[in-house]
Specification:
Structural class: mainly alpha
Radius of gyration: 29 Å
Helix content: 55-70%
Number of strands: 8
Length: about 500
């Protein structure tokens, strides 16, 4: 495209902007085949007559969502990016350089918007399912660490008298986790918690080994946490049905009896078998996915985890993690998903290096990085990468690279996972377990983190900023951080000048 043509389209955009109320009146900008579609904050600031008189404007149209300026095919696709650039430039001139406070405000707004978008019935249901399992995480972590210590003592041949005690402490909770899931499920969904625990206890009772359900021989623990979840949900429904129909004088006797009896029979003669099949399928699929998909599976899982968190869909993984831990002692998915946090850390480090003259944002990154290394990514997500836009995407690239590395190693035979859910990053090291020995397992996980850090850093450093955003953030209008040069042409000033070009 010629310079003359570009200037013409920029002139059209410059003529349109003040007539629609200026940069601060623009909520959104998009275009279709022929129309520039503008989301307005205040419709009264628009000068319709003057807009129609702008050369190149073929008309204006207004619908419920946007104000539309008709520019014609081809022209609209060239005017729109110029219009967007002018809007961003206008906001930058008014607001000055973007600081940590500005990023925090953007992050808070994005977080609230995400909460509003995630308030769908399906996502709210997933959140309630997550609420069942989240209270169990401290016990899973504690027992997982003790199990790791027990394994270490066993392999070294140390303290043989203590090893059985540690094994009992580590395994006791897991042997009864179904009861806790049933209790929490009934509590979360409005039933009597102890009744939910009672029907879930049927699943782990050793006596079920004597029961044949339609030709299928039951075994204690069959169905696990999925069966307990289903049984407790059914118990809540049965209890509510009884509460509505049983006379008050008989309620204290009849309702709990019917709830436990009906739900217990359905659990024994249906739910245990179905949930057991589902749990087996989940375990087989997870193992097959990494054994066959390897690097590709790891790339997809590691790269998409942060968007899943943003959409609220990551909560669906909690029962899956718990099922895998119950089956094999660890979840193979969590170390791969943890690579998303590594990509986030790498992206934050790149932002830090790219902004030598923005002490405010750099201070935010320094304060949030320790938590990021330990797997707590929210301060970096909502304080840095998500408000900036592109660094969030490049952080996902880092997560994908780290996930691909771990997935490839799994495909090559180094299968491992986490014995608990909740921790991530460096905090996951004490919870690792696998088939290839602790040394190899730790080395592979550390290698995945390193790959995630480096890929997230490189992707963000080279592709994480538009020219306009770099210029805005590195203006030098605020005091540089201690240790960087000022305006006097030192290394920091030279770097800032290079970034602005």
């Amino acid at each position: 495209m010629s310079t003359e043509s570009t200037d013409k389209h920029r002139a059209t955009a410059a003529a349109l902007l003040p007539l629609v109320g200026g940069p601060d009146n623009i909520r959104s900008v998009a275009h279709c085949m022929t129309r520039l579609r503008i989301g307005l904050c205040d419709r009264s600031l628009v000068d319709d007559a003057a807009l129609r008189a702008v050369p190149g404007v073929l008309g204006v149209v207004e619908d419920e969502a946007t104000y539309q300026v008709v520019l014609g095919p081809g022209t609209v696709a060239r005017v729109t990016p110029e219009f967007e650039a002018l809007v961003e430039e206008g906001r930058t001139r008014v607001a000055g350089p973007l600081t940590a406070g500005g990023l925090a405000e953007r992050g808070a707004a994005l977080k609230e918007a995400r909460k509003a978008r995630n308030a769908t019935p399906f996502k709210l249901f997933l959140r309630r399912i997550a609420n069942v399992f989240v209270p169990l995480i401290p016990a899973l972590i504690g027992c997982g660490v003790i199990a790791g210590l027990n394994g270490l003592l066993t392999n070294l041949g140390w303290a043989p008298a203590v090893v059985p005690a540690l094994a009992a402490i580590a395994s006791g909770f897991m042997s009864l986790i179904a009861v806790f899931v049933g209790f929490n499920t009934a509590k979360e969904f409005g039933g009597t918690p102890v009744l939910g625990g009672a029907v879930a206890a049927v699943i782990v009772f050793p006596g079920v080994a004597k029961i044949d359900a339609f030709g299928e021989h039951l075994s204690p623990g069959q169905g696990g946490v999925l069966g307990a979840l289903a049984a407790a949900l059914l118990a809540v429904r049965v209890e509510r049905w009884c509460r509505r129909r049983v006379p008050g004088t008989l309620d204290v006797l009849v309702t709990p009896t019917l709830t436990v009896l009906v739900t217990g029979l359905v659990t024994l003669y249906g739910l245990m078998f179905l949930a057991g099949e589902a749990a087996t399928a989940i375990g087989a699929f997870a193992n097959w996915l990494l054994a066959a998909g390897g690097a590709l599976a790891g790339l997809v899982l590691g790269g998409l985890f942060l968007p899943l968190v943003m959409l609220g869909l990551h909560q669906a993984l909690i029962p899956i993690h718990t099922t895998l831990i119950e089956q094999s002692g660890y979840t193979v998915l969590l170390p791969i998903l943890a690579m998303a946090g590594a990509g986030q850390v790498g992206a934050a480090l790149a932002v830090y290096c790219r902004l030598p003259r923005n002490g405010s944002v750099r201070s935010t990154i320094k304060s949030a990085l320790p938590a990021g290394f330990l797997g707590v990514g929210e301060p970096l997500i909502y304080g840095v990468s998500l408000p900036l836009g592109r660094p969030f995407v490049t952080a996902c690239v880092g997560g994908a690279a780290g996930g691909a590395f771990v997935g490839l190693c799994n495909q090559l035979g180094v299968a491992f996972g986490s014995k608990a859910i909740g921790p991530s990053g460096w905090a996951l090291f004490p919870l690792l377990d696998g088939t290839s020995g602790m040394g190899v397992t730790v080395a592979v996980y550390a290698g995945g983190l390193l790959v995630g850090y480096l890929a997230g850093f490189a992707a963000t450093y080279f592709f994480g900023f538009t020219r306009l955003l770099r210029t805005s953030l590195n203006r030098g209008d605020e005091e540089p951080e201690a240790g960087t040069d000022g305006e006097g042409g030192g290394p920091a000033a030279a770097d800032s000048t290079a970034l602005a070009r």
